[in-house]
Amino acid sequence: MTLEEFLSAELPGLSRFAGALTGDPHLAEDILSDAPLVVVSRWRRIAATENPVAYVRRIVVDTASSESSRPRPTTMVRRVPPCGWHRSWTGRSS
Predict the structure, then answer these.
(1) What is the average per-residue pLDDT within 88-94?
(2) What is the DSSP string of 26-69?
(3) How many angstroms separate the CA atoms of 5 and 83, rounded?
(4) Integer Cα distance of 28 and 35 in angstroms
(5) Which of 83, 88, 29 is nearest to 60 (CA)?
(6) Measured at the alpha carbon of residue 17, what is the angle toward residues 14 and 22, in degrees to the nearest 5?
(7) Does the pTM exceed 0.70?
(8) Is the dihedral of CA 52, 38, 23, 69 positive or negative?
């Protein structure tokens, strides 16, 4: 089985697995964009195993583990007050 055939057959299941593992569809997408890089570099070894799907699932788990420990950027959201609020607040008319 080639890598392309494997990914075509198994990617939907791996996607569900990553989603169930993380509980976050966006994080699951991130994991599934990183894990195949590891799979490509190890494909000969993976293809020679008795159960390549289990091997790749372990890579997904390891990737999820490293993703969850990576600091995430936070976005500060400031609420924008309605137009004209500053006039009544400051006592100014303009």
Answers:
(1) 55
(2) HHHHHHHHHHHHHHHHTHHHHHTSS-HHHHHHHHHHHHHHHHHH
(3) 57
(4) 10
(5) 29
(6) 125
(7) no
(8) positive
Q: Name the one residue in this structure whose structure tokens are 């936070």.
A: 74
- Which burial class, exposed, middle or buried, applies to 81 when counting CB atoms under 10 A from its CB (0-12, 13-18, 19+)? exposed
Token pair of 14, please?
A: 């791996």
Amino acid sitting at position 91: G
Residues 8, 11: Cα–Cα separation, whole Å: 6
Based on the number of CB atoms within 10 Å of its own CB, is 46 exposed (0-12), middle (13-18) or buried (19 or more)? buried
Cα-trace Rg, the chain: 23
Tokens encoding 31: 């994991």
Question: pLDDT by residue (tens digit) across 15-74?
Answer: 999 999 999 999 999 999 988 899 999 999 999 999 999 999 999 999 988 865 555 555
